[in-house]
């Protein structure tokens, strides 16, 4: 691989998204077009909580590797976005996600226990935390670049879900509204960092592979959910419809 | 959970296998009954190499946590079985597995690169290494107890594959013949260790959960293979038929 200009590297990163980002996954098409049963949406929200849960771990692991106070000040905001401000705005992305699982009738403690989550989803999430802890800082930051592609999927998701499902409303989907502001800000910063710091063929290849890793990590979660809950292949010990529901008040 | 006698604990461990071990997975039934295409068998062997590859890592991580020379002497044999003796018998389980992928026409360097392996399979294997590194020694040893259930699946596999597929013979399946001797010896030792050392409700529960973890880790690998290669949902960037074949001599 020859060395790429920053613009060429940015274009190569975007091509990975165009080929591998999970907006292309059949389960997302199904979800957004109203073909999912409420139990399929529950399975998705319950499993996707595993991913929401590890985002602050992942960002803290990245933060712990940054030997530059300015970089840390910027990156820290991601943890604030997920965990909420101390004191005045105690919600944050993680609790907004739980508002969705609440809205779907799932018991919050059951969701948070991860007991019903599919092993493949848990392993993928753990792999992401390990990746950013063990690879170079450049690769850790490059793996966050799926944010470049998320505004489109989020817009499709919110409008599609509101239109097709009477069991969701804007209040339970509020997680996504916040991400529409946060993701482009984060992605722009990370793209600038990666195209500035990856200036050898080796580091450019590593950055591209980091984004491929991340796309695979997202995609395989949907494969697992689709295989078990759409195609009807029960997973021993995992959530099944009827389990883990909140008591009706 | 009340405390179980050693026999009750052994029975509870065996029940987990009877409910969750991957001999119950539809892909294994398909494989053993001759319904797989050669490309499905290739996909399985190529992906399963990820698991073969990490077995010595896993056993070395367990060994590194044993503060008892006698225990280490016993456990060390597992690494010898997989890596081969130095000098006089340079084969070992890992290379016997590669004899199978060779026999299926796959390029050995491609298989060993893991390039074409499914992310879900790689993440599951990494999760196993992390599990035995991070949990208690008791849990690490308990997670090896799937060996209790493997002789049956291996017998079914070897006889089924020899009967149904003209592209395998006894020579490429020699990995399994060796495991038929090794697995019962290993499982007996581990079962004795676990039933002797798990003498509180908490440690007994941990041992049972460790075996559930291991069963899930094996099952989700077959789910991923089945979803992509049997049900025809291509995974971006992963092996597909035609890729990674050895040059014909």
From TrEMBL, chains A, B:
Biochemical pathway: Cofactor biosynthesis; pyrroloquinoline quinone biosynthesis
EC annotation from Swiss-Prot or TrEMBL: 1.3.3.11
Any one of the GO BP annotations: pyrroloquinoline quinone biosynthetic process
Catalysed conversion reaction: 6-(2-amino-2-carboxyethyl)-7,8-dioxo-1,2,3,4,7,8-hexahydroquinoline-2,4-dicarboxylate + 3 O2 = pyrroloquinoline quinone + 2 H2O2 + 2 H2O + H(+)
Ribonucleoprotein keyword on record: no
Matches recorded under InterPro entries: Haem_Oase-like_multi-hlx (IPR016084), PqqC (IPR011845), PqqC-like (IPR039068), Thiaminase-2/PQQC (IPR004305)
Occurrences of domain Thiaminase-2/PQQC (ranges): 12-223
Gene3D superfamilies in the record: Heme oxygenase-like
Protein name: Pyrroloquinoline-quinone synthase
Species this chain originates from: Acuticoccus sediminis
Gene behind this protein: pqqC
